[in-house]
Design goal:
- By secondary structure, the chain is an alpha+beta fold.
- About 35% of the residues lie in helices and about 15% in strands.
- It has 15 helices and 14 strands.
- It has a 7-stranded antiparallel β-sheet, sandwiched between helices. The chain has a 3-stranded antiparallel β-sheet with strand order 4-7-5. A two-stranded parallel sheet has the order 6-14.
- α1 runs antiparallel to α15 and α5 packs across α6.
- The longest helix has 18 residues.
Amino acid sequence: MSATVRIQHSSGDWESVISLFQELVDSRREPGGSLAIWRDGAPVLVVHGGSADIAHEVPWSADTLVQVFSTGKPLVALAALQAVADGYLGIDEPVCAYWPAYRDTPAHPTTLRMILSHRSGKHTFSPVAAGLDPRDHAALVHDLEAMEPLTVPGEVIAEHASTYGHLVDGLLAAVGAPSVRAYTEALSGVLGARLRFGVHPHELPLVAESEPLGTAWTDPYLAHELGRAALLRPAGLLDPDTLRSPSWHRARFGAVGLITDAASLASLYDDLSRSDGHIARALGGELRSEVFKTAASGTDGFLRDTVRWSLGFRIDDNGDLGMGGIGGSCAWYSPIHGYALAYVTRGLHTHDRVTHLADAVEAALRGKNGGPAAHQEHGES
């Protein structure tokens, strides 16, 4: 099969970026993936290449979808913030006031703000969940509902690598608000995007086959106890056979289960960046501003790194707002340079690929704009 990179959209001179993407595909460091850049409400570059299957027989196309792991966590947060905007709940009220069955620490009650900034104390499922099916959404919500917080809510930062979506969905269900899946589906319709927590039946043939490229994508997390608890409960979250199964592609798993394409993610961040965007109009200015503010900072126990979390997003030292996923997919908005970028891949490896591409993008922008460009990695779980 030809390794030719196909250009879906290009506006301006992006030859250096396209050449680098071609090099990644030619070397099979990128077995199949896509890159998209949006600015000011429109795409300026969308390219894809490689294959959608591990046999390298099905070319990656403009229609190909892929699981992007934690890159989807911001959509979980946006669903929760929309519920706040719609009056279902408050962001700083005790969760148990809305969700009576939620087991909490009475002296230090959990709030939605704590959940969205990875400080709820329920950053892993219980040991019992190791035996649950990752597709059993109700059982996993109940597991979190019934367990005591592992740490005092609000005190410890630890990315909710696997629990994020189930915590929010449990709360949304308790107040009768639309689920993360329903919100994301509605937002997709407005944006003309394909953002799925569970693909439509007719989209199943479009989902790329995830393929581990060694163990570097999991080694840093599985090297410590919290990481193992977060990623191995429930079993199957890292298993290639599970990740390639149609039943998984139809399931909803808010923390890691988003299935999408690069253009959809880039259009999401572009919309979020604009004060006249759909998300801004739906949330209102005050709630939207929470997305860009630091809600928690310090050492993250899961990532083993110093972080700044807003409500659902990571903010880097340049002020870039984004989220990456274990395996290499990533998306963000750069306020300094005014672009939204998304990179999605079925080749599960480190974030080196998107880091190199982002450097090329910002070098190109520096040439166009005459200003400085500096990029930092956005890789998460």
